Amino acid sequence: MPSKYLTILLLKMIQGFKQLIPVSPVRLSYSYYMRSKDSEEFQYNLELADEMEADGRALDLMKVNFPITQFFSAASYLDKHGPGERYNLVDLAPRIHVPVLALAGSLETHTRLVDMATDLVLAAVNSPSASCEI
Questions:
Q1: Is residue 3 part of a domain?
Q2: What is the DSSP letter of 71?
């Protein structure tokens, strides 16, 4: 199922909720990662995925260590972490119309977690109430 349909499905599901409580929400943001201390490694992964896709190997696996140590197909990595920002929860947060309580640990230091809960709450401008507990 293409990602835009997953996003629509997710938003429809959230609208049926009475409250949203993300626990240690993960930041999936190309623009944020490109400005982070991990930008060099992230850029390398993107270039590798682009090359693989251009060589007709979009479904071949690549091992990455950023933003998480995992195997991705080149196409999947570009879809999830590329400039389309399809899974950027901060960008999607203004579409949330239910109360939000974001929970995060005080020792979360990885780029994908730092300040994410706070940023999500600040972006949830259409939520009747939004708060963050660390």
A1: no
A2: E
Give the pLDDT confidence of 36-49 residue by residue, as tens digits: 999 999 999 999 99
Task: Determine the Cα–Cα distance for residues 28 and 63; give it in Å rounded to an integer.
Answer: 18
Is 53 inside a domain boundary? yes
pTM of the model: 0.83
Looking at this protein, which amino acid is placed at residue 5? Y
Domains: count for the chain: 1
CA neighbours closer than 13 Å in the CB half-sphere of residue 114: 9
User: Which residue range is the domain that position 110 belongs to?
Assistant: 18-133
- Cis check: omega of the bond before 67, within 30 degrees of 0: yes
